[in-house]
Amino acid sequence: MSTHPMSARLEELERRRNEAYHAGTETAVAKQHSQGKMTARERVDYLLDPGSFEELDLLARHRAHGMGLDERRPYTDGVITGFGTIHGRRVCIFAQDFTVFGGALGEVFAEKIHKVMDLAASVGVPMIGLNDGAGARIQEGVVSLHSYGGIFRRNVASSGVIPQISVVLGPCAGGAVYSPAMTDFIFMVEHTSHMFITGPDVVKTVTGEEVSLEELGGAMSHATKSGVASFVLPDEKACLDEVKYLLDFLPSNNLESPPSITPTDDPNRSNDALRTIVPENSNQPYEMRDVIREVLDHGEYFEYFSHWARNITCGFGRMDGKVVGVVGNQPAVLAGVLDIDSSEKAARFVRTCDAFNIPILTFVDVPGFLPGVDQEYGGIIRHGAKLLYAFSEATVPRIQIVTRKAYGGAYVVMNSKSIGADLAYAWPSAELAVMGPQGAVEVIHRRELAAAADPITKRQELIDQYTERYANPYIAAERGYVDDVIDPSETRKTLIQALAMLETKREELPRRKHGNIPL
């Protein structure tokens, strides 16, 4: 009778493990490095705390047959899955391995991802996906497509329950793009990350358009035009560092509060610079991000979608050590008007903050919605409703600060008291009105201007009268539409005190089916 001593069994285990750790060929690894890309294992090691990674399904292999698959059955099947910690906090992770089958997804590959996604959801920790794959594994046919569906369904089930972060570090094409699209944040790397439904060759065949890979699906295309990439970084290490930084602002799940830190910035610090930041001429722009940085702890503002829909700015920061989400109209871009893209961007951010218990500060300087045929045909009504709905249904603490213009329906949409803001403040420079003085005078005094001997002088006289009477915060303050008119230098102190009061806010929306929520 043959014996199998433990030493022999351990040698066999070590041999198999070593084979799994080097599943990609040396040629494939060298090619990955030559493109400025790390391997899947190198990425996991860089992202997670040293020594914290516990791998799952290391020895999993595909069980498909035909088309050459019988000849090669590498361990891991082209994806590394497991759990570990980032800054001491637990996370689950998968990393597609382009050196094995080009990172293409097959049945076992998908089962590994399903398992780790289920684990993340059941224990309530963030799920991070490092994407670098060629899409569905053609040799496995419809099984691959079915397996993608399992990933998509889990993305939906975890949405708003745990943070889901997608990091695209290579190709992500075809149906594979929809999993990142349903996660909360997408990171891409310049020149090496690409996402598209159909590649340049197919586009040329079908439409006759010639477009490069970078123009069609590169990081900056998705950061500036499509609004797919939340964050774009110059290289992989910078990208993974930014993922770590983002996690510092997010709770592990929707039942926890975001991580707070011991504050080191004086909560009573005066914001004297804000007294002069708004130009005397209401038509002149200024930089809203300067206002935001002046108010936040140490001026640290982590901006979201910084390259897309720049007429609104969204991002994370801290007030007295506690995480806040910030939404602000940007007067330096398109005068801060709301349009299709900015409404979409802000609505998604507001809903993310609401899902993960992050209070929302809204800085308002909005002249209205962007007029135009393209906007109307593109659905500005529908997209503007998304932002209105997002603010209205948010149950986290919500504070509005009107710095200058607050005109028409756009003012109402931007987290006004009428749609449920807990507290609203205005600077003395605030102008809360149905429309701006110039437009109002043209409508109200149209006949008077037409009959005037000197229309230009009369128009200016009427504009001055309207501005004096209506373009100020005091009528709104009299009616309680703003809770106080404050000195801009007191903004930080006022907001910190307000957030402290709202910290124990409890509000639940009536339980109902979603109906016609404008997603």
Task: Explain what this protein looks like in three dimensions.
- Pfam families: Carboxyl_trans.
- One of its GO terms (molecular function) is ligase activity.
- Its EC number is 6.-.-.-.
- Keywords: Ligase.
- Residues 266-515 form the CoA carboxyltransferase C-terminal domain.
- The chain is of the alpha/beta class.
- The chain has 20 helices and 17 strands.
- The chain has helices at 6-21, 26-34, 40-47, 107-123, 142-158, 178-181, 200-207, 213-217, 219-226, 236-247, 288-295, 340-355, 373-378, 380-393, 408-413, 437-444, 446-451, 455-470, 474-479, 491-502, and strands at residues 54-56, 79-86, 89-96, 127-131, 164-168, 171-173, 185-189, 194-196, 231-233, 302-304, 312-319, 322-329, 360-366, 398-407, 423-426, 431-433, 484-485.
- The strands form three sheets. Strands 10, 11, 12, 13, 14, 15, 16 and 17 form an eight-stranded mixed β-sheet that branches. A seven-stranded mixed β-sheet has the order 1-2-3-4-5-7-9, with helices on both faces. It has a two-stranded parallel sheet with strand order 6-8.
- Helix 4 links the parallel strand 3 and strand 4.
- Helix 12 packs parallel to helix 14 and helix 16 packs across helix 18.
- The longest helix has 17 residues, at 107-123.
- It is elongated, with a radius of gyration of 27 Å.
- It starts with 5 loop residues before the first helix and ends in a 17-residue tail after the last helix.
- Mean pLDDT is 93; it is low at 513-518.
